[in-house]
Amino acid sequence: MPLSLRSANDMKALELYFTEDVELQIHGFAPIDGSWSGRADVIAAAARNFQKLAQQEPRIETVVDQSDNVIWLLAESGYLKETGQRYAARGVIWWTFAGARIRGVEEFIHASSPA
Fold first, then answer.
1. CATH code of 82's domain
2. How many domains does one find in the chain?
3. What is the tens place of the pLDDT at every residue in 7-18?
4. Does the CA dihedral 5-9-13-18 come out positive or negative?
5. Any domain includes 67
6. Which strands form 34-37's sheet, in the order they lie side by side?
């Protein structure tokens, strides 16, 4: 998911990037953990998840690009909107592509709170 997407209005643009049968799975960060299938459900989940976080500061540390897979190692910090609690997370995001579109996103996150 492009890191520049920051509002629910931007989420509509994701339709251009996802296949109809895209899948999103997030593991390890309870406020946004889950599994969703289908473009509409994945976009709705992404919008809800972004709305739960504030002042996100993602940093991509490593990128691996191999065939139809791209893997990011990243670190991120920010705040949980509901509690105001700061979080710090490290994780891996595994993107799977079908042609020029995203077919799958699987995130493995280790978060510590407070940071």
1. 3.10.450.50
2. 1
3. 555 777 888 999
4. positive
5. yes
6. 34-37, 18-27, 101-112, 86-98, 69-80, 53-66
